[in-house]
Amino acid sequence: MQIQAPKGTKDVLPQDSYKWQYVESTIRELCRLYGISEIRTPVIEHTELFLRGVGDTTDIVQKEMYTFKDKGDRSITLKPEGTAGVVRAFLENRLFNEPMPQKMFYLNSPVFRYEKPQAGRLREHHQFGVELFGSPSHEADAEIMLLALELLKRLGLTDLELRINSIGCGKCRKDYNTALRSYLESHIDDMCQTCRSRLDRNPMRIIDCKEEKCRIICKGAPRTIDFLCDDCKAHFDGLKRDLDACGMKYTIDTDIVRGLDYYTGPVFEIVSNNIGSQGTVCGGGRYNDLVGELGGQPLPAVGFGLGLERLLLVMENTSAIFPEPPRVKVYFAATGDEARLLAFDLARQLREKGIPAEFDHMNRSIKAQFKYANKIGAQYTVVIGDDELNDGAANIKNMMDGIENMVKLDEIVDFFTE
């Protein structure tokens, strides 16, 4: 039986990897402009990190985490999201002693969730995320949202919608949870089993349930935005002023609560209309309590994450234009041992000069080598055989326009470098 990749995983093949590299290079350049440095955290973490950070009543913790015991009987979890690991690294490496704000991004970070594979979302997928620590200002929230929108704009996406909400802090969340619990208690018999268990412990998680019957119930539920304390309301109003000042269009969507317990205050999603009902490309918000929850001194923070698979899917379904895949500039077609040896060395010399060059490794005929050169899109072909060795010169053909040049063998490298 042929071995296959596990369900919910996907290979990135050589003919597609250039698309990933294009997105990654665009991300790195944009983060450079925003003064954001890269952080890399382990794929595995102690399970407690996600129980305390993400929340034990979330779908991720209850249904989706890949958790196992290692040989030391420690509970280990494959990373299901990026923020908790970054906060752990922030605390463990005492980055709170550095000047604030601390701004960092992670890229192509693998995350693992056991869920039904769907468009752009796999059991193993890869995320780009940005985290900003230390600033309580609404300008920090706005900057994070603008960065995400600017990235998508640079990648050629247009049919996007920024949706924002505020889910309040611990102070105003108490009054909201009381009102929400009161509303939901009258519908408890119609809820899914998971949401019934959440009613007393964390009723706001019910709003994030994907079960259709629970979604219908929640349409009439109280909204967080109506219970904001004065500080949360002022912060949210300031965020809206910042977005208005930048000419950034947005919609207030009171259904957004995000699927992770660490969020406080403003939250947001960027939605595409090009990948069906599961259209969220990017999501994030403020999480002022998470650093304290994980053992540090209270510190404000805000960030976002997006799945690269989903982003690429949106790009492929829209008018976004990818650059041309990289091509070999020079292909050496050679016959005979001495000619092959020379072609092999010339390819090496061109690569040392930064020029992509290729040489036949399959002992094909000259005719077959030309076909291969066409297939890989080589810009030039150089034919070397016994005649060329005797004459001390080889024919160089431009495969784009058909122009040919006879060049001395010892001047081939200079021909291309000049």
- How many domains comprise the coordinates? 2
Number of strands: 16
At CATH level 3, the topology of the largest domain is BirA Bifunctional Protein, domain 2
- Strand neighbour order, sheet with most strands: 1-5-6-11-10-9-7-8
For the largest beta-sheet, the strand count, sense and barrel status come to: 8 strands, mixed
General form: elongated
Please name the CATH architecture of the largest domain. Answer: 2-Layer Sandwich
Low-confidence stretches: none
Please state the average pLDDT score.
Answer: 93
As a percent range, the share of strand residues is 15-25%
What is the radius of gyration computed over CA atoms, rounded to a whole number of angstroms?
28 Å
Q: Using the coordinates above, name the CATH class of the largest domain.
A: Alpha Beta
What is the rounded distance between the termini? 54 Å
Instruction: Please give the oligomerization state of what you see.
Output: single chain
CATH homology superfamily name of the largest domain: Bira Bifunctional Protein, Domain 2
Number of helices: 16
Strand-pairing-aware structural class: alpha+beta
Helix content: 25-40%
Folded structure, characterized:
The chain has 418 residues and is of the alpha+beta class. The chain folds into 2 domains: 14-169 and 229-316, Bira Bifunctional Protein, Domain 2 (BirA Bifunctional Protein, domain 2); 330-417, Anticodon-binding domain (Rossmann fold, 3-Layer(aba) Sandwich), CATH 3.40.50.800. It contains 16 helices and 16 strands. It has helices at 14-33, 47-55, 59-64, 83-92, 138-154, 170-185, 193-201, 204-207, 212-218, 230-245, 290-293, 308-316, 337-352, 366-375, 386-391, 412-417; strands at residues 37-38, 44-46, 67-69, 75-78, 102-112, 124-133, 160-166, 251-252, 266-272, 280-286, 301-307, 330-334, 357-359, 380-384, 393-398, 404-408. The strands form 3 sheets. It has an 8-stranded mixed β-sheet with strand order 1-5-6-11-10-9-7-8. Strands 13-12-14-15-16 form a 5-stranded mixed β-sheet, sandwiched between helices. A 3-stranded antiparallel β-sheet has the order 2-4-3. Helix 1 (14-33) runs antiparallel to helix 5 and helix 5 runs parallel beside helix 10. The longest helix has 20 residues, at 14-33. The protein is elongated, with a radius of gyration of 28 Å.
